[in-house]
Design goal:
Order of helices and strands: HHEHHEHHHEEHEEEEHH
Distance between the termini: 43 Å
Largest sheet: 2 strands, antiparallel
Keywords: Heme, Iron, Membrane, Metal-binding, Signal, Transmembrane, Transmembrane helix
Strand content: 5-15%
Radius of gyration: 23 Å
Protein name: Cytochrome c1
Structural class: mainly alpha
Shape: elongated
InterPro entries: Cyt_c-like_dom_sf, Cyt_c1
Subcellular location: Membrane
Length: 251
């Protein structure tokens, strides 16, 4: 009995950890997997800025190409830089041993990162870098303290000289595209090529794509779920009438 209780505790421990939530405030990000234009911009950003180190090895290029309505030839020509074929898994050229030697640990696969961390965490993390000369790479992150990753978006965002104001309500409205409280950085050490609003919108697109990758069937599942609930409701009516007919003469 004790072993059973211990096993159940170990099984639910990760869920309890996720339910506890993040250690600090985050900016809210609500994904929209029906926004194909956003997802297309997101896959372009991920390919150009993230996929040099991070794989998405649980997904295939062809599935992404089909779901995002990008012609296979166009996808293969502009978004595959490893020589892989369109039907292969989204892996990277850099070996894990080589990556561990450079960064201390191999960069994680990001297929399911939004399922583990949540979209708001990823969105806040991407915008949370700031200058920190005490760190080996010269940057730190308000969401992930002592981060071992360089600020790969510095060309676009610039580099914040102080800690960004994450958790004060910055968000992108999916329907209008308007940015609320976009400028999370009060002072820049390096100026970026994008305005604060444009960069936030780009990171929303990137996070939206990563959210899609973690649950690529979400839109279809929700669409089918409506029909399943309608079927269950209709079936319940007939099941109730049949049950009443069976038991009407039972005393």
């Amino acid at each position: 009995m004790r072993k059973l209780i211990f096993g159940l505790f170990i099984a639910i421990l990760p869920a309890l950890g996720l339910a506890a939530g993040p250690s600090g405030p985050l900016d809210t990000m609500k994904p929209d997997h029906t926004n194909k234009e956003s997802l297309q911009r997101g896959v372009a950003l991920f390919t150009n800025y993230c996929m040099g180190c991070h794989s998405m090895e649980y997904a295939r290029y062809k599935r992404v190409s089909d779901d995002l309505e990008i012609p296979a030839e166009l996808y293969e020509e502009n978004l595959i830089f490893t020589g892989a074929k369109i039907g292969e898994l989204m892996q990277i050229s850099m070996g894990k041993d080589m990556a561990a030697g450079w960064f201390g640990a191999p960069p994680p696969d990001l297929t399911l990162v939004t399922r583990v961390r949540g979209e708001s965490w990823v969105y806040s993390y991407l915008r949370g870098f700031y200058k920190d000369d005490s760190r080996p790479l010269g940057v730190n992150n308000v969401v992930f303290d002592n981060v071992g990753m360089p600020h790969v978006m510095v060309e676009m965002q610039g580099l914040c000289a102080v800690e960004p104001r994450i958790g004060v309500g910055a968000s992108v409205e999916p329907l209008s595209g308007n940015i609320n409280n976009a400028d999370v950085c009060p002072e820049y050490a390096i100026e970026g090529s994008m305005s604060a609003a444009d960069f936030d919108r780009a990171m929303w697109d990137l996070t939206n794509f990563m959210s899609y990758m973690g649950d690529p069937v979400k839109v279809e599942r929700e669409r089918l779920g409506i029909f399943v609930l309608i079927f269950v409701a209709i079936f319940f009516i007939f099941a109730y009438l049949l049950n009443r007919e069976y038991w009407k003469d039972v005393h």
